[in-house]
Amino acid sequence: MSRSEHPAGTDRDGRLIDARLHLLDRQILDCDGVPVATVDDIELSGIESDGVTSSAPRVEAILTGSTLMTRIFGGRLPRSRLHRIKWDDVAEVGITLRLRVRSEALDATWPERWVRDQIIGRIPGGRHAPD
What we know:
- It contains three helices and seven strands.
- By secondary structure, it is an alpha+beta fold.
- Strand 1 and strand 2 form a beta hairpin.
- This is PRC-barrel domain containing protein.
């Protein structure tokens, strides 16, 4: 069944999705089960800027970013700081969201990769798992 054949508000198995309950703040795992991030927001289509729904709303992407400081001090992270993961890359919605792609293929994991390569990798013994 293609994406366009799914009724609005359902996942690929036909279950009804409540964005607040099933998506927001859920952990995202890549296809190998490696943690990627958590869902901070979702991007919908079918809703115009004045709040009028032009068609059935659809999830276009899940958004993730470094929201720790905004959660501690309040406020909202600028949209430009959020990383977009296409809804087509989501394979399964359950306790976690499982992706069809590896985490290395996503922009959402670049800060972790940078810290691993530039900081942790320079510490003696930092390039291999502990014995």
